[in-house]
Write the structure tokens for this entry.
Amino acid sequence: MKKISIALIIIGAFALGYLLRGGGSQTQKQDHQHTAGETAKVERWTCSMHPQIQLPKPGQCPLCGMDLIPVSSGETDSDAGPRQLSMSQKAMKLAAVEVTPVERKEVTTKIRMVGKVAYDETRVSSITAWVSGRIDDLFVDYTGVVVTKGDPMVSLYSPDLITAQEELLQAIATEDVLQNSNIPIMRETASKTVEAAKEKLRLWGLTEEQIEEIEMRGKTSDHVTIYTPISGVVIHKNGLEGMYVKTGTAIYTIADLSQVWVKLDAYESDLIWIRNGQTVEFETQAYPGETFKGKVAFVDPFLDPKTRTAKVRVNVPNAEGKLRPEIFVRAVVHSVIKRESDVIKGVKSTQPPLVIPATAPLFTGKRAIVYVQAPDKTGTYEGREVLLGPRAGDFFIVREGLSEGEKVVVNGNFKIDSAIQILAKPSMMSPEGGIQPSGHDHGTQPQKATSAAREEKLEPLKTPEAFKSQLDAVFSNYFAMHQALSQDDLTEAQDSAKDLLTSLKNVDMKLLEGSSHMVWMKRHKAVKQNTQEVIDTDTIETARSAFMPLSDTFYKVAKQFGTSGTQPVLRFYCSMAADGKGAYWLQNKTGTENPYYGSAMFTCGEQVETVSPGSMEEHPEGNTHE
């Protein structure tokens, strides 16, 4: 109750006393005893945490139990429109309102991807038998051997080749006999027969040097040597000494690793930023601190239905041979958006995109609200719903709702929206505005709520310490997900979610017995399902929606099974999350870091419970920036 009172004083006094009037006001008592010289009149009473509550009499909020505060009709806002709020110069200074113009400019976004090194399929060759026979010698008898173009690979005995050599020698002898013939057609026919015999040997894999050697030797050879056509590494060896092969039988496969492919997984939502020819930078665990570069050469036109990702192929030079197939990489693409048509389909404009800073919009569900400074009214701000494109670094691309040159609020917009909510005007949480029904008669005293959400009864279960220790890694991955969502980083949140599923598999449920075992199976299923939803989504909004029930399940796990005490488990609550229904989450450090709004409302919410104190010194207070 002490924290609630402090929040009431800070939020209520600041939002109403300064934003609505721009300065100090005379104290208004809840018994409506106003002095005759007051310029404001109390019309209704509201809750500073739940402004949709609007009652004609003082009392307590039916949702959270906080004392209601008076809403005054002041002269400062008398000329404002239904979606506007007018503020004095002093009020704007106290609220730290900052505006910036909507502008057209080139923007850069950073796309992170993961993947692995693969062979360049255009540089892979097979050494096959061009004629049937028996392998008598393998000069390269294991995979991984580096070979150079022209190196001998196989010695092959082939009766067919002996016959072909005999045909060549007989054709040469005939040509010699007919060399002095007076009949030109006979000489020409003999010459063509020799060339046909040579061509047959070429097609069966003999080199010009080998054919010349047969001519000089004047007799056949019972073996033929097969040479490698390219330089590279032997990646497959299919032949064995003594094995009989037919024409076309693969004996070796060789890959040239002087250039490799890096195959990356790009999320569906990131494909708009990726184009052929872009430079990709990536790092590997094998060479920490070293950055490699390549060019995007191909973007798969199909998505993987399970992961909702598309393969992006990058061509990378590998002269030093450091990059080996199957090495994992973490890559970054810096995509520069120069034209509006690059990101907005159907637009043929060649001018830069229209953008606003990422701190300007307030998000609730699929709606985005910005506050625009009225051009003809000093200190007047109007709420406007806009349609935004993808986020590009520190900016959002605007599709509809704003024009170049208009000034949008980039700091203090949440405070403006809170004041507009209290005035029952259309706002972020109340699109239609108006007084929201409280669910109680206006003439009756609302009952004080004991909690913002009903909790099921959670009794501690018999849990061995070994099981609690195994839960540490699962909770650590959950806290990493929370941190990523509060920082608006979907990719990092999904990576942490994958780590969570891995650590969840390492929790040995055989350590539990009886009812503890049955409850854990239920919690395990819920954690796995909600975590997988975070992994499968392509939008951070959906990930945050899945994080809400996941957080509730983790709270139940902490209450029922306990923790090892190695790290704090603190419970936080934001009344504005889930479209005003409120939502909880867990942190391992103090200081509100809201995962449901991120940078839009980073510190919205408060700590409501210490589930486990842990070692607070090891987990310092979190960020407190807005």
Observations:
- The chain has a mean pLDDT of 81.
- Residues 110-120+257-337 form a domain with the Elongation Factor Tu (Ef-tu); domain 3 fold (CATH 2.40.30.170).
- The chain has five domains: 2-95+418-422, 100-106+341-411, 110-120+257-337, 124-253, 465-618.
- The chain is about 25% helix and 25% strand.
